[in-house]
Amino acid sequence: MKTTNYNYDLVPPENLRPGPPWMRKTNSFRNLGVNVVEHLITLCGLRPGHHVLDVGCGSGRMAIPLTSFLNEQGAYEGFDTSEPRIKWCQERITPAFPNFVFRHANLYTKMFNPVGEIRQMDFTFPYPDECFNVVLLYSVFTHMLPSDMEHYFGEIARVLTASGHAFISYFLINSESVELLNEGKSVRLGFAHDHGPYRTESDRNPELSIAYDESYVKGLFERVGLEIVEPVRYGSWCGRPDCFEYQDTIIAEK
Prior knowledge:
The chain has 254 residues and is α/β, with parallel strands linked by helices. The protein is 27% helix and 22% strand. It is built from seven helices and 13 strands. The strands form three sheets. A seven-stranded mixed β-sheet has the order 3-2-1-6-7-13-12, with helices on both faces. The longest helix has 18 residues, at 26-43.
């Protein structure tokens, strides 16, 4: 993918970009989207005519670079709990790229959508079976509690085509990340509240940041019939140098 084709005219205003202030800067917003899309191409076999589902699509961080890669035979679907972000995408991206469709999902989350009407554990992705070549979840399960995440695993497996790929980011707890956290190597995260298969940054607001035990996560992939494409690509969030991305990434194939 040629990153020089990035369309800066489509970048949303800073108040609609997700994440902490350092991630909302234009270059950070752009670079993360471009990097992830390039990973989808090189590691998930994404092709211009493929169909992509972006769960928790926000204000188009991944969609914008995909507009210069997917062709007319390809398709993009994204949904998010944030109505203002979805509305911006519908008004700015879809008119220029009709094969890019954005939906507001009025899901309840204490932190992101406290007025939501549907529990995430009850939500059926609004798409037929086996219709996406790639399903992307970036920084979704880092804010989702176990019962909701387990349900989403079933939906991911359902909508993936045979040989389709899932690209999912996490904060994974394993011996290395625990050691680095205990040494204070992480600049922003501590995950001091231990709940067995997961840890939270804040017990008062658990959805702020959630880290999962790596073996627990791997078991969920196996349960729904998704095979992890090794290696797991670990991130720099806990203080590792020279990493794949900030968050940990698991790629799996159906």
